[in-house]
Write a structure and sequence with these properties.
Chain lengths: ~120, ~110
């Protein structure tokens, strides 16, 4: 079975440019999460969706960041305009429906973003 | 105080050694606990869940101490392939999200 798919795997851009990161979750998973990982701050949750609806975007650093999930098989994270401090690895993860307990999150390979 | 704290390491051990990592969490409402493993330049992957009674998976043993709010991971007979960063992860009751520690790096040498 295909896991979580992210594209691009690497992105190098210049400050001020728009960056769009893409994610295809595992089919049948109800939850989708966007994370950012840096050496300084570790893995931080940016936003998550349940059944395509954004539930909590309190981790989004500022208005330059936006995320959408137009359908169950696709999500985007957009940064406009990008800044050097946005350089990080961005992970998308998905998990199946939560029953009475917790379900494992499955991570994609990540997008390594460098903003010059 | 950070919600999940770990010693960043690195822990340098020879093959065959036993090594233990601890992690503390600040929120007493935390309900579920996990160890994830992250190889260099790869994504995190679930290593094992941590149950109140403690649990073992081969060479790996995880324990939870709710009173002191810490979680431990013990690795016996370390292999070179165990070299990775180990992330302590907690889930708060009623929440769908996870909180990750910054990880402890383990380097196993021949």
């Amino acid at each position: 079975d295909a896991g979580v798919i992210q594209s691009p795997r690497h992105e190098v851009t210049e400050m001020g440019q728009e960056v769009t990161l893409r994610c295809k979750p595992i089919s049948g998973h109800d939850y989708l999460f966007w994370y950012r990982q840096t050496m300084m701050r570790g893995l931080e949750l940016l936003i998550y969706f349940n059944n395509n609806v954004p539930i909590d975007d309190s981790g989004m650093p500022e208005d330059r960041f936006s995320a959408k999930m137009p359908n169950a098989s696709f999500s985007t994270l957009k940064i406009q305009p990008s800044e050097p401090r946005d350089s990080a690895v961005y992970f998308c993860a998905s998990s199946p429906a939560r029953d009475r307990g917790y379900n494992e999150q499955f991570f994609g390979p990540g997008t390594r973003l460098t903003v010059l | 105080r950070k919600e999940v704290e770990q010693d960043p390491g690195p822990f340098n051990v020879p093959e065959g050694a036993t090594v233990a990592f601890n992690c503390t969490y600040s929120n007493s409402a935390s309900q579920s606990f996990f160890w994830y493993r992250q190889d260099c330049r790869k994504e995190p992957k679930l290593l094992m869940s941590v149950y109140s009674s403690g649990n073992e998976d081969g060479r790996f043993t995880a324990q939870l101490n709710r009173a002191s709010q810490y979680i431990s991971l013990l690795i016996r007979d370390s292999k070179l392939s165990d070299s990775a960063t180990y992330l302590c992860v907690v889930n708060r009751k009623g929440y769908s999200t996870l909180t990750f520690g910054k990880g402890t790096m383990l380097l196993v040498s021949p």
